[in-house]
Amino acid sequence: MTVRVVLADDQPLVRSGLRVLISDQPGLEVVGEAATGIEALQLVRDVSPDVVVMDIRMPGMDGIESTRRITAGPATTRVLVLTTFDEDDHVYGALRAGASGFVVKDMALDDILAAIRVVADGDALIAPGVTRRLIADFVRRPVAASERSPRPVDGLTEREREVLTLVGRGRSNSEIAEDLFITVATAKSHVSRLFTKLGARDRVQLVITAYERGLVTLPR
Prior knowledge:
Largest sheet: 5 strands, parallel
Strand order of the largest sheet: 2-1-3-4-5
Distance between the termini: 46 Å
């Protein structure tokens, strides 16, 4: 199955480089390019891509607002955000807007391709290093009382709460299986049920839920 990709970046050279990179890969196809958030939103409506590789800083509607509108709509399109290390404030906004992962512009090309495939498969880019650090910093930040609930999520079994807690700690399915003495397939099944019960698009949203509902806390 071919992963259909839209590139959204106001720099033509960035789009051109990504287009050439992706076009050489089996199973990946660029189906559109956008220079603004508004153009990206319209392309999602027109061509229904699997993944939008979304820059944050664009004229008019920025990538965060475009991501929010894409993920709030009926499309199943997922968003992979383009960022740099000095744009953490924008990344936190993108997390809340529903982004499924992050690509640092100067990272290895193979890693960018892998990120697109990971997001297209319905997972999120929660890897040791950049993304785990970003999420850790994100959940340390104060939020409005209306956005944070001290109550654990309702409607979950005790095992599902355990799995959600481990997802919140950045554990992979294989690590969850090892921690709980279950098979990887069983761990994956629990995570899939969490997606359904919590209405989450991917693991990023599960991580945020685990922190915001008090299942996971960070040392002060």
